[in-house]
């Protein structure tokens, strides 16, 4: 069956992760002992196997070319500090214990070393609540490198595994994973409905940052959310992952609709249905501080965007930045201290970009010149419930203005902050200092030689210092920040379509300013792109149709009206509504005017 079939059966599913390696920031690991190379904290990072087939000197490795020497850069998990005897039995039994905030243990996963095919053969698991053992499991005769136990116990604060026998002789314990997420899947009768909204950009402003949302209603079976085992996990930032699926060859194939984080739980006592509202990870950027970008000559928008995302804590796998931004070089680039959200909005304004989260939970910065991928989907009268063409005031203009900025640096050094601090003996502290004005080439000094600045990171209007008291006694100091004043002057480029002005009269549009636009050439280019895009006033088309998850924001699709006219559209937003059946509301903008520029 396909989504285009009529009739069809569409399935819904929502996975909710109540605790995982990302959400469980309070995890602590205790072990009996470590080998020379051992990484106990890797046991909850969810790796599937070690990065190396480790060569050991215990008689279990051969010189066949498949073994490698270990370094501290390898992912290996916990390696114990004692060796088993010739029968694999430990005289001193090694253990690993993980503690965390109170949570239920529904499943628990234990993974040995898959590349060496080594695993615990006999061991004991103890589930503790505030240090008191509430359940014990004894495993004898295990033959699996990876195994899952199902204790199903509530209100647990730690789990301890004590290994008595290993699968091979003369070897130490090797545990790659000792952890499992707390998660549940809701389908069928447990899922009343859900709604997912995703946006590439808002209808009013095409170059911005947008956060997606979802709501879901799920069955409160046995009052598990307010009286049962999940009651301690009804917190913000729980991870929700909605899906829609269709049956193919006797199996349901689900398509993900994104990853969201709970904002609100509604658990009424007079109803069996729990409602959760969630947003994507971008919304957290509104309260996350970005220290700023120091003034640097000839930096691309790509480098600035990457700096913002890296300082927000993202890895390279968690974002996609348009390569087109490497071609936009800012002569004297800087950003003041602000939120991560506002800093990304500056990138969107200066680079004519859209910032959004994709279905793989990655931050995507898409440039106006990026060619959309093809979805192969067609919205037409056979699958459409309604079709609306809409033109707003921001869709048409024949006179576009873009500001750009001349940046210069004064020769004189000015003082912009003085912060008094007191440190106890040998204390190390991180201090944030805001400046009274924006400066270039900032630096900080301490008036007390006993209080040293160990590290210094700065934007143009704020800095972060790591300071240390080198003495055993309390010390006071004044940290003074100084630098060269930045002078900023704005100018404007205006591009007009004279033929359109004569026919329709003048309709003006001023693009949101950004101090990252610093040349006449860049401002003129942006003006021409905007004018080309807006001069026809073609607006957007919104269709409510039977839906297909393959139509994502940012991709191209065809939309045919009831008169047979077909438009090529860029998908700007989707709203998926599932209540046993699927409906999708899609808004698209005509592509040809984007490409004509």
Written account of the structure:
The protein has 597 residues and is mainly beta. It has five helices and 38 strands. The strands form nine sheets. Strands 1, 12, 13, 14, 15, 16, 17, 18, 26, 27, 35, 36, 37 and 38 form a 14-stranded mixed sheet that branches. Helix 1 runs antiparallel to helix 2 (340-351). The relative contact order is 0.12.
First and last CA, distance: 41 Å
Helix residue percentage = under 10%
Strand content: over 45%
What is the overall silhouette? globular
Number of strands: 38
Note the main sheet. Answer: 14 strands, mixed
Decide which structural class fits the backbone. mainly beta
Q: In angstroms, what is the radius of gyration?
A: 29 Å
Unreliable residue stretches: 593-597
- SS field, number of helical segments: 5
Q: Care to give the gist of this entry?
A:
Helices cover 8% and strands 48% of the residues. With 597 residues, the chain is mainly beta.
């Amino acid at each position: 069956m396909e989504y285009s079939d009529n009739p069809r059966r569409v399935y819904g599913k929502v996975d909710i992760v109540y605790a995982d390696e990302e959400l469980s920031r309070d995890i602590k690991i205790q072990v009996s002992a470590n080998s020379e190379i051992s990484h106990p904290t890797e046991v909850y990072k969810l790796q599937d196997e070690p990065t190396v087939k480790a060569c050991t000197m215990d008689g279990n490795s051969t010189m066949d070319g498949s073994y490698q020497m270990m370094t501290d850069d390898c992912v290996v998990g916990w390696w114990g500090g004692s060796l088993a005897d010739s029968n694999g039995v430990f005289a001193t039994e090694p253990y690993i214990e993980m503690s965390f905030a109170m949570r239920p243990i529904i499943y628990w996963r234990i993974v040995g070393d898959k590349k060496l095919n080594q695993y615990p053969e006999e061991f004991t698991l103890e589930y503790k609540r505030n240090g008191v053992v509430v359940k014990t499991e004894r495993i004898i005769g295990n033959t699996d490198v990876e195994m899952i136990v199902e204790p199903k116990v509530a209100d647990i604060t730690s789990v301890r595994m004590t290994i008595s026998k290993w699968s091979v002789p003369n070897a130490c314990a090797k545990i790659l994973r000792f952890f499992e997420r707390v998660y549940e899947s809701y389908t069928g009768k447990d899922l009343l409905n859900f709604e997912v909204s995703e946006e590439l950009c808002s209808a009013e402003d095409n170059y911005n940052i947008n956060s997606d949302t979802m709501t879901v209603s799920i069955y409160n079976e046995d009052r598990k959310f307010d009286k049962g085992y999940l009651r301690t996990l009804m917190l913000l930032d729980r991870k929700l992952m909605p899906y829609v699926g269709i049956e193919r060859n006797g199996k349901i194939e689900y398509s993900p609709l994104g990853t969201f984080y709970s904002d609100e739980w509604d658990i009424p006592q007079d109803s069996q249905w729990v409602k959760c509202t969630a947003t994507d990870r971008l919304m957290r950027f509104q309260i996350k501080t970005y220290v700023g970008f120091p003034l640097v000559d000839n930096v691309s928008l790509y480098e600035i965007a990457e700096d913002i995302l890296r300082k927000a804590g993202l890895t390279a796998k968690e974002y996609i930045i348009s390569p087109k931004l490497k071609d936009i070089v800012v002569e004297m680039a800087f950003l003041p201290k602000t939120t991560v959200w506002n800093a990304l909005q500056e990138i969107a304004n200066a680079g004519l970009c859209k910032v959004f989260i994709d279905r793989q939970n990655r931050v995507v910065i898409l440039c106006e010149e990026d060619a959309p991928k093809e979805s192969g989907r067609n919205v037409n009268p056979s699958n459409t419930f309604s079709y609306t063409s809409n033109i707003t005031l921001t869709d048409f203009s024949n006179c576009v203005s873009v500001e750009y900025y001349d940046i210069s640096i004064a020769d004189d050094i000015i003082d912009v902050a003085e912060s008094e601090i007191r440190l106890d003996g040998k204390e190390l502290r991180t201090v944030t200092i805001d400046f009274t004005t924006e400066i270039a080439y900032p630096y900080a000094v301490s008036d007390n030689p006993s209080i040293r600045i160990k590290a210094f990171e700065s934007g143009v209007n704020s800095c972060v210092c790591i300071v240390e008291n080198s003495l055993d006694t309390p010390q006071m100091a004044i940290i003074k920040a100084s630098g060269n004043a930045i002078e900023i002057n704005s100018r404007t480029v205006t591009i007009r379509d004279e033929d359109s002005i004569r026919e329709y009269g003048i309709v003006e549009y001023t693009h949101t300013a950004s101090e990252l636009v610093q040349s006449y050439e860049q401002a003129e280019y942006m003006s021409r792109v905007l004018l080309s895009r807006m001069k026809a006033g073609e607006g957007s088309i919104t269709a409510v149709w039977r839906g297909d998850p393959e139509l994502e924001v940012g991709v191209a699709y065809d939309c045919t009206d009831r008169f047979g006219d077909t438009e090529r559209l860029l998908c700007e937003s989707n709203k998926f509504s599932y209540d046993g059946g699927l409906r999708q509301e899609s808004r698209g903008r005509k592509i040809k005017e984007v490409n004509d520029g």
